[in-house]
């Protein structure tokens, strides 16, 4: 159940991260690799929207993944694109890398929302579930 909880925490962090990014870029737009990133209006919108666009394929694949790998295995597999996405965010040198990373984070959100919810629903005993 800790993995399911962490999956939902990750979803919350990835959805709200774009707001922190826009605020931070106003004061210091230097990345970890000393690249300067500035966002146009459409890029600011893409920072928010790519998470939701990336979640659609995640939802579509998640049911199959749960059936093949099981609930726990699909949560582990679903977290993999998110870890890659956060690594790309940390090492990004341009806005295209950030947008691609946000899409990977959305994919993870779609995968984990189905897998984690399926897992959490089946934790209680059958008599309690109804």
TrEMBL record:
Nucleotide-binding in keyword set: no
Superkingdom of origin: Eukaryota
GO CC terms, sorted: membrane
Coarse class of the protein's main subcellular location: membrane
Record-annotated membrane-spanning stretches: 50-69, 76-93, 99-121
Xref: InterPro entries: MFS_dom, MFS_sugar_transport-like, MFS_trans_sf, MFS_Trehalose_Transporter, Sugar_transporter_CS
Major facilitator superfamily (MFS) profile domain: residues covered: 1-130
SUPFAM superfamilies: MFS general substrate transporter
Record membrane topology: Multi-pass membrane protein
Presence of keyword Transport: no
Keywords assigned by UniProt, alphabetized: Membrane, Transmembrane, Transmembrane helix
GO molecular function, one term: transmembrane transporter activity
Subcellular localization: Membrane
Pfam families registered for this protein in UniProt: Sugar_tr
Name of the protein this chain belongs to: Major facilitator superfamily (MFS) profile domain-containing protein
Organism: Meganyctiphanes norvegica (Northern krill)
